[in-house]
Amino acid sequence: MSEGALARGVQTLEATSDSPRLDAELLLAHVLDCDRRQLRSRSAEPLSETAQSTFEALILRRTHGEPIAYLIGHWDFWTLTLRVTPAVLVPRPETELLVELALSTMTDKVAPTVLDLGTGSGAVGLAIASERADASIDLTDASEAALEIARLNCSLLGYSHVQLHQGTWLEAVPGRSYDVIVANPPYLASTDPHLATPALGFEPLQALVAGPSGLADLKQIANTAAAHLKAAGSLYLEHGYEQGVAVRTLLTDAGFSAVTTHRDLAGLERVTSGVRPD
Length: 278
Known about the structure:
alpha/beta, 19% strand, elongated, 278 residues, 2 domains, Rossmann fold, single chain, two-stranded antiparallel ribbon, 7-stranded mixed beta sheet
């Protein structure tokens, strides 16, 4: 019975997961090709041997810390469900702040131009695209494997106003300029203790770590973004919650005005913005 399998899955996950019930439900729903709400109505349904063995294998992988998103192959961000693989970071809810800020900046703009640097799965850029069909949006990533995932998500969503470019930060879009540039670059220091977290061991290291201080990529973007912004264009950078002061300094030193740090729903400094210098 699927309810019995679910209960055993929850019990197995209790020692290693902060949300064993949710994890087990997501995995079982994936195996049964349904959503979580349908599990109750299917609780008396017997599992086939194949489904049972698949579910048990996924539970075991989860006990080793593998993210649910990689196990089921998709994850929700903003109002979208995106395909994800270990080639890209799992989209995180705090990153939705980048989307909110970019959209608020464009409320008075017609047909704005937007650049999402280091797009990964495409989460930020595609979320903006979902709200602004009139925008022209470019997504970039240095990783071809990551860009393939973003390309797949763009295709599945049917967005024709999005283009993808491979390359390192602003080098991917030579000669182009934008009203808004957003980026969620790597910002962990190479010695950051969070890297020992089991889940992070499954995510692409190059999308997490940026040198000894974690500021290498943030500094590179801050120093090169102004040349790719239109007059009064805005740059938004996600960063670690203890990096607000450092990123404000980077943007101020690069000549940006109206440098401001924005807090996420947990009250932590999460995104710093600036306006292109005149």
